[in-house]
Amino acid sequence: MTEPEMWEAVQRSDASYDGLFFYAVKTTGIFCRPSCKSKPPKRENLCYFASGEEARAAGFRPCKRCRSDLLEYQPMREIAAEIKARLDKASSLDDVGLTPRRMTDVFKQEYGVTPKEYADSLRLRTAKEMLAGSPEKVIDVAYRAGFSSLAAFNRFFKQQTGQTPTAYRKEHQVL
């Protein structure tokens, strides 16, 4: 990456460059992320580093505004990962510590889908695998995939795949 590119990123407070480099201001002794919202310094007062450790080794301290020392600290990402892990294990989401609305927002921001959409995709994948790879009755597949009734399973499966579970089994069974 060139110095002019880094300077442009600093001027724009461009978060897409975070982690790729850090800049330090010689007059203040502080190093920042490219996305720092502080007033842009004069270009002649800047120097660039590949990592926060390099900036510290050169005698600069982390910015208190952008918390350049906490680049990897992303609590919402950690919460979204916990929600995903619980959904993967079909565990309860009751004690995550967020309201259902906030939990949905955090999860969707990280993964692009709501927790319900993600859980539905897991249930659909499980159902497809069981229909194609086991001789179990469709009702047993429905319950093992997490559905409370055969009617709900049939409706969901047809809506998602365009065919009934029985038709899907006939087309994809590998026994």
UniProtKB/TrEMBL annotation:
<dbReference type="GO" id="GO:0008168">
    <property type="term" value="F:methyltransferase activity"/>
</dbReference>
<dbReference type="InterPro" id="IPR018060">
    <property type="entry name" value="HTH_AraC"/>
</dbReference>
<dbReference type="InterPro" id="IPR018062">
    <property type="entry name" value="HTH_AraC-typ_CS"/>
</dbReference>
<protein>
    <submittedName>
        <fullName>Helix-turn-helix domain-containing protein</fullName>
    </submittedName>
</protein>
<dbReference type="InterPro" id="IPR016220">
    <property type="entry name" value="Me-P-triester_DNA_alkyl-Trfase"/>
</dbReference>
<keyword id="KW-0808">Transferase</keyword>
<keyword id="KW-0489">Methyltransferase</keyword>
<feature type="domain" description="HTH araC/xylS-type">
    <location>
        <begin position="73"/>
        <end position="171"/>
    </location>
</feature>
<keyword id="KW-0227">DNA damage</keyword>
<dbReference type="GO" id="GO:0043565">
    <property type="term" value="F:sequence-specific DNA binding"/>
</dbReference>
<keyword id="KW-0238">DNA-binding</keyword>
<dbReference type="Pfam" id="PF02805">
    <property type="entry name" value="Ada_Zn_binding"/>
</dbReference>
<dbReference type="InterPro" id="IPR020449">
    <property type="entry name" value="Tscrpt_reg_AraC-type_HTH"/>
</dbReference>
<keyword id="KW-0804">Transcription</keyword>
<keyword id="KW-0862">Zinc</keyword>
<keyword id="KW-0805">Transcription regulation</keyword>
<dbReference type="Pfam" id="PF12833">
    <property type="entry name" value="HTH_18"/>
</dbReference>
<dbReference type="GO" id="GO:0008270">
    <property type="term" value="F:zinc ion binding"/>
</dbReference>
<dbReference type="InterPro" id="IPR009057">
    <property type="entry name" value="Homeodomain-like_sf"/>
</dbReference>
<dbReference type="GO" id="GO:0003700">
    <property type="term" value="F:DNA-binding transcription factor activity"/>
</dbReference>
<dbReference type="GO" id="GO:0032259">
    <property type="term" value="P:methylation"/>
</dbReference>
<dbReference type="InterPro" id="IPR004026">
    <property type="entry name" value="Ada_DNA_repair_Zn-bd"/>
</dbReference>
<keyword id="KW-0479">Metal-binding</keyword>
<dbReference type="GO" id="GO:0006307">
    <property type="term" value="P:DNA alkylation repair"/>
</dbReference>
<keyword id="KW-0010">Activator</keyword>
<keyword id="KW-0234">DNA repair</keyword>
<dbReference type="InterPro" id="IPR035451">
    <property type="entry name" value="Ada-like_dom_sf"/>
</dbReference>
